């Protein structure tokens, strides 16, 4: 079975440019999570969706960040305009809601460098 | 205080040793906990879900102590391939997980 798919795997861009990260969750999963990982702050939850609806976006750092989930098999995280401090690895994870043991499975990540 | 805290290590152990990590959490309402393994420049991979008081999977044992609000991961007979960073995660609400910063393990020959 295919796991969580993310693209691109690496992105290098210049400050001020728009960046769009993409994620395809595991088929059948109804929850999707966007995380950011840096050495300084570790793994932080940015936003998560359940049944395509954003549930909690309190981790989104500022208005430059936005996320959408137009259908059950696709989500995007957009940064506009990008800044050097946005450089990090961005992970998408998916899982199934229902019950209290809700495991999450991570994609390979997008390594973003903003110059 | 961070919601989930871990000793960053590194823990340096020889092959065959037994090693244990602890992870403390502050939200007493947390219901489920997880250990993930993360290799350098890779994604976190689910190692174990921590059910009830604890569970075992081969060389790995995870335990939950609700009274003291910590979970532990015990690795027996360490292998070189166990070298990685181990992340502890606890839920803080509907499906929302908060992770510690990870504990680095180095297993040497």
Description:
The complex is a heterodimer of chains A (115) and B (109). Chain A is mostly beta strands and 115 residues long. Chain A is built from no helices and 11 strands. In chain A, β7 and β8 (74-79) form a beta hairpin. In chain B, the strands form 2 sheets. In chain B, strands 2, 4, 5, 9, 10 and 11 form a 6-stranded mixed sheet that branches. In chain B, a hairpin with a 6-residue loop joins β4 and β5. Chain B is globular and about 40 Å long. The model of chain B has no long low-confidence stretch (mean pLDDT 92). Classes of the chains: A mainly beta (115), B mainly beta (109). Chain A binds chain B through residues 31, 33, 42-43, 45, 48, 50, 55-56, 91, 95, 97, 100-109, and chain B through 31-32, 34, 36, 42-46, 49, 51, 87, 91, 93-102.
The number of helical segments of chain B is 0
- Percent range for helical residues of chain B? under 10%
Return the string of H and E elements of chain A: EEEEEEEEEEE
Helix content of chain A: under 10%
Question: Gyration radius of chain B, to the nearest Å?
Answer: 13 Å
Structural category of chain A is mainly beta
Task: Return the structural class of chain B.
Answer: mainly beta
Largest interface (CB < 8 Å):
A-B, 22 and 23 residues
Low-confidence stretches of chain B: none
Task: Say how many strands of chain A there are.
Answer: 11
Number of helices of chain A: 0
Spatial separation of the terminal alpha carbons of chain B:
37 Å
Strand content of chain B: over 45%
Oligomeric assembly? heterodimer
Distance between the termini of chain A: 36 Å
Mean pLDDT of chain B: 92
Query: Main β-sheet of chain A: number of strands, strand sense, barrel status?
Result: 7 strands, mixed
SSE order of chain B in H/E notation? EEEEEEEEEEE
The shape of chain B is: globular
